[in-house]
UniProtKB/TrEMBL annotation, chain A:
Localization, UniProt: Membrane
One of the record's GO molecular function terms: cytochrome-c oxidase activity
GO cellular component: membrane
Protein name: Cytochrome c oxidase subunit II
Chain ranges of the Cytochrome oxidase subunit II copper A binding domain: 39-143
Family statement drawn from the similarity comment of this UniProt entry: Belongs to the cytochrome c oxidase subunit 2 family.
InterPro entries in the cross-refs: CcO_II (IPR045187), CcO_II-like_C (IPR002429), Copper_CuA (IPR001505), Cupredoxin (IPR008972)
Entries under Pfam families matching the protein: COX2
Ranges annotated as spanning the membrane: none
Keyword Membrane recorded: yes
Gene Ontology biological-process annotations: ATP synthesis coupled electron transport
Alphabetically ordered keywords of this record: Copper, Electron transport, Membrane, Metal-binding, Transport
Automatic annotation (TrEMBL), chain B:
Residues annotated as domain Cytochrome oxidase subunit I profile: 6-479
Classification lineage: Archaea, Nitrososphaerota, Nitrososphaeria, Nitrosopumilales, Nitrosopumilaceae
Single biological process term from Gene Ontology: respiratory electron transport chain
Protein's name according to its UniProt entry: Cytochrome c oxidase subunit I
Organism whose genome encodes this protein: Candidatus Nitrosopumilus sediminis
PANTHER family referenced in this protein's UniProt entry, alphabetically: CYTOCHROME C OXIDASE SUBUNIT 1
TM ranges: 25-47, 67-93, 105-127, 147-171, 183-212, 232-257, 269-290, 305-326, 338-358, 378-401, 413-436, 456-477
InterPro entries listed in its UniProt record: Cyt_c_oxase-like_su1_dom (IPR023616), Cyt_c_oxase-like_su1_sf (IPR036927), Cyt_C_Oxase_1 (IPR000883)
Length: 143, 508
């Protein structure tokens, strides 16, 4: 090793390890909260296929390309795919889950304000992947 | 000297030679050819995304084919062959052996690259370099997809053969007076990356075979319609290709270990921690593959395990950065082109690593996954660290390969333009990802922030493009007409070099 001391390196590695432990613990804690689906969340079945999204509400109503939800309610999305892999994403609400044929993936969110948000596919799914978009329309029933 | 342009050898003497420097030269020229081809595709992609709507490329299918071949080319046909070329030149000399352990195998490994590359380029497949099923099974147009699969199979075999050769050369053929603890760090980097290849690539080879039989309709490993599971492919793929990023980055770090002490005129701060970090990185590289798959519906426990595994790679990489900075501390640094590329590469390595921590943390992953953040992140590694290390080393080895000096001013201009361009393109892409732009899209809605940042990125890419043209001109002109180099010490940093000019080619 030669004629220099190694303590700066040990301190440095210690700091890096401590930082990583901190990042990991914070992320673990946040993820635990994010994964917990609230009681009484309404289920919506989200189906991805080349190249559009279909939504089926609990009461049986179906929508294509547009999803209407209400402010203040929690929604549990069950995401499935009919053909290839897609990824369901509402960027403004940090909702992201892959739609994989043969699997049902769940993710939840609770809209806070009325408004319109973009829904997009984030997993490459072929020719019109770039345009596999939709609209999330959050309505305020009291307004 | 290898490329003797004053007394040229006939081209077939180099092509059919099995001497390590000749094979290294073939690797070098091939990989640089593919660098420019893949880079041209990158410029086409950026030009198309300059404005929303279809302008340059015209249709989505062509665009999808272009980014697929761009990625495949630069990873498999530029970075890996370039590392092999450096390894071929330097590893036998560094372990003081007359050649690679298996010279003919070495030449065979090289000669698998042209057919593999031809299959990829002639096929021009569109299913991204992941080839994710079920798209790659049921929708990807053949024969392009099949040609891609065969091309990658051939390239995979080539890297496994190359890896065996490096491992045997370093472990069995090193000079008896040389202990394993005296092998230079560059050779250590090839040893650790070759060991990763030996473990990782066969997994992907199996996955590719399964994918091919799925495409032929005789099996259903990954086809849900036949009871298969597409996620199984994702596991096999990332088990290979997460460690593979370390295969790409470790030799580049090794090249910096050669350059930085030389131009700092100081021994490396800690040889042992360099070796330790290489070995550690090649082990923990295997514990982090599923952080690419947080959004596929994994359980909380699985995600936690892989987050810990991913974060474990950070201290190992950080040790290298510390080593470099500590070496340069208080040193009489000579900032010639190779040193500038290495220092720039370290700065970008550090920033890309910091971004990588955000990808590893589970909840943050959902804002960044499959957006331009990820594109920016790994390009910052691939371009900012791996290509910077490689190009810096290319300038470093230029006098040894050609016996002439490159033009120093042009080299510096190349570096400054590339550095500015890299920051403009890939830092911007991180921000673009936070605004939610998905990757691999041919067109985007006219959102003002998206347009502005795409334009910054495209301008940056064009700056890199121009700098690469300068680089090409410099290399071609200087290898023929550059002023003759002092092969004892071409950079005037003192100390005697023991590199390829001593490796006499037996064929002349």
């Amino acid at each position: 090793m030669g004629g220099h001391s190694n303590w700066p390196e040990w301190i440095y590695i210690g700091v890096v390890v401590a930082l990583m432990v901190w990042v990991g613990a914070e992320a673990w804690e946040a993820e635990r909260l994010v994964e917990h689906v609230p009681e009484g969340a309404e289920t919506i079945i989200v189906t991805g296929q080349q190249w559009f999204w279909t939504f089926e509400h609990e009461d049986g109503t179906k929508e294509i390309g547009e999803l209407h939800v209400e402010v203040g309610k929690a929604y549990k999305l069950e995401i499935v795919s009919k053909d290839v892999n897609h990824s369901f994403n509402i960027h403004d609400y940090v909702v992201l889950m892959d739609a994989i044929p043969g699997r049902v993936n769940t993710v939840w969110f609770a809209p806070t304000d009325a408004g319109e948000h973009d829904i997009q596919c984030r997993e490459y799914c072929g020719l019109i992947h770039y345009n596999m978009r939709g609209k999330l329309i959050v309505e305020d029933p009291t307004a | 000297m290898v490329l003797e342009l004053q007394k040229p050898r006939p081209i077939w003497q180099i092509m059919f030679s099995t001497h390590h420097t000749d094979v290294g030269l073939l690797y070098l020229i091939t990989s640089l050819g593919f660098l420019f081809l893949g880079g041209a595709l990158a410029l086409a992609i950026r030009a198309e995304l300059f404005l929303p709507g279809a302008q340059i490329i015209g249709d989505a299918m062509t665009f999808n084919r272009i980014f697929t071949v761009h990625g495949t080319t630069l990873i498999f046909l530029f970075i890996i062959p370039f590392a092999s070329s450096v390894g071929n030149y330097y590893v036998p000399i560094m372990v003081r052996y007359k050649d690679m352990a298996y010279p003919k195998l070495n030449a065979i490994a090289f000669w698998m690259i042209p057919p593999g590359g031809a299959l990829i380029w002639l096929g021009f497949a569109d299913f991204t370099w992941y080839a994710t099923p079920p798209y790659s099974i049921i929708s990807a147009p053949g024969p392009a997809a099949d040609m891609w699969i065969f091309g990658l199979k051939i390239l995979g075999i080539s890297s496994v053969l190359g890896a065996i050769n490096f491992i045997v050369t370093i472990l069995k053929c090193k000079h008896p007076d040389m202990s394993i603890g005296q092998v230079p760090l560059l050779a250590w980097s090839f040893l650790s990356s070759s060991l990763i290849i030996l473990v990782a690539i066969p997994t992907f080879a199996a996955a590719l075979l399964m994918l091919l039989t799925d495409r032929l309709g005789v099996s259903g490993f990954f086809n849900p319609a036949m009871g298969g599971d597409p996620i199984a492919y994702a596991h096999l793929f990332w088990f290979t290709f997460h460690p593979e990023v370390y295969v790409l980055v470790i030799p580049a770090i090794g090249m910096m270990y050669e350059i930085i002490p030389r131009f700092s005129r100081k021994p490396i701060y800690s040889y042992n921690s360099g070796v330790f970090a290489f070995v550690l990185l090649s082990i923990v590289g295997f514990s982090s593959w599923a952080h690419h798959m947080y959004a596929t519906g994994m359980s909380f426990t699985e995600k936690t395990v892989f987050m810990v595994g991913t974060l474990a790679a950070v201290p190992a990489s950080a040790m290298h950065v510390f080593n470099f900075v500590a070496t340069m501390w208080n040193a009489r640094i000579k900032f010639l082109t190779p040193m500038m590329w290495s220092v720039g590469g370290i700065a970008l390595f550090f920033s890309a690593g910091a971004g990588g921590v955000a990808n590893a943390a589970m909840p943050l992953d959902f804002t960044t996954h499959d957006t331009y953040w990820v594109v920016g992140h790994f390009h910052l590694f691939v371009m900012g660290t791996i290509a910077f290390g490689s190009i810096g080393f290319l300038y470093y080895m230029f006098p040894y390969v050609t016996g002439r000096m490159y033009n120093e001013t042009m080299g510096k201009i190349h570096f400054i333009m590339s550095f500015v361009g890299t920051v403009l393109v890939f830092f911007t892409q991180h921000v673009l990802g936070l605004y939610g732009m998905p990757r691999r899209i041919f067109d985007y809605p006219p959102i003002p922030e998206w347009i502005a940042m795409n334009q910054i990125a495209t301008v940056g890419a064009m700056i890199i493009g121009v700098s690469m043209a300068i680089f090409l001109a410099n290399m071609i002109y200087s290898s023929g007409k550059g002023k003759p180099a002092n092969t004892e010490d071409p950079f005037g940093v003192g100390g005697k070099y023991y590199y390829p000019f001593e490796a006499k080619n037996p064929s002349h």
